[in-house]
Structure of AAA+ ATPase domain-containing protein:
Amino acid sequence: MASTTFFTQKIPSVSAIFSIYTSLSAFTILFRTVLNELIPTKVRDFIVSRFKEHFSSYFNPNFTFIIEDQCDYVTNQTFRAAETYLPTLLAGITTGSLLVRSSNLKNPSAKPKFGIPVNAKISDEFEGIPLEWTLLSERNESPYQSRPKRYFHLTCKKEFRDKIMSEYFTYIAKASVKILTSRDNLKIHTYDPKDHSWESAIFQHHTTFETLAMEPEIKNTLMRDLDAFSNGKDFFKTVGRAWKRGYLLYGPPGTGKSSLVAAIANHMNYNIYDLQLQSVQDDAMLRQILTTTENRSILLIEDLDCSGADASCRKENKDEGEDGENQAKNNTKNPQVTLSGLLNFVDGLWSSCVEERIIVFTTNHREKLDPALLRPGRMDVHILMDYCKPNVFKKLAALYLDYIEEHDLFEPIEKMFLEVKATPAEVTEQLMVSKDPDVALKGLMEFLESKKMIEESEESEPKEAEE
């Protein structure tokens, strides 16, 4: 009886419980109202987020590195290294999708390349430490970049964070360099001003120094120079110069300037960034474009005398006709890209942003270039791409006529090259008429004789006018 009375006295009535609940509810509503009135929304959200972050990190045993595609003003080299390295780990992909790409226009049946789709997870292991990579993407708010912003998440156990920071990232950087050095396919990039990004395609130009029709002495000197540059990292560091090399290729149209660029790219195994200065709005945009290029690459700026960054672009010769006039009109639309802006990237402070870079300028008229571009130190090597000479002709004949070394027409044709200005492109066009050496060489001889008659008649016209 006593026990029953005790429990009856300890248990509150239903009305008492309801009264307590009502009081607590009223207090909660009052506290929330006061809190909302006194503390701004942003401060409340910050407190809540930090509270959640603290407890989630406390109970979460993992640590995540975030690797964005951009770092300050340039491409994040760690992101680029990961982008190069991770496709070698596709066997460890844990999600049920795979990116399949094929841009080989010359061989549609070639084996496609496999890549990492967004949100895919890839497993890796470094010295027994399990790692997980994830590629993520989100909308880019930058007015200079319309493409989505991409970044990697690298997750590991918290206790391995320091080791990953000090050793793993160095490991993938070195691995990516080896992959790029031995890459099978080169790429040629062009800048898209609408998307503010570089677009690329597989570069399959088959010209090499072996097949390049060029004066042997100039070719050998250039190859030695390129090899010395490639092995010159310590030298450039010792003398305090940016690791770059500049080449100016000048000469008439059709003398093989583009083919020489292809031979350099294949020899060095470098990608090409083909920049049309007419598509660049101003010097600031030019810096932003050039700093997003990669190491071990060729920056190509063709027809520099008509680029808009030089003093003027005068009308070309009769062979170029309307093209020269159209080019001049285009330059008037883009007066903001200045010569000083270009030079600042060639040999100014910004030239050190990318390492192991080759800069190639081409022009049909070196005499039109501003003297500042020709100053020593700007372009290290000037190479004249001249009209066809006997040595170049023999190389072309061997390439296009089944490696022929001797023919009765060789001597008269070689003599004609001393009297007539014919470009390698014109000679090649004649040699491709037939695989039969007799037919091809006879056609070339007739072409040169016709060209000689035209040149002689043009030379005689001014004399007759003077008389």
In short: Residues 62-184 form one domain.
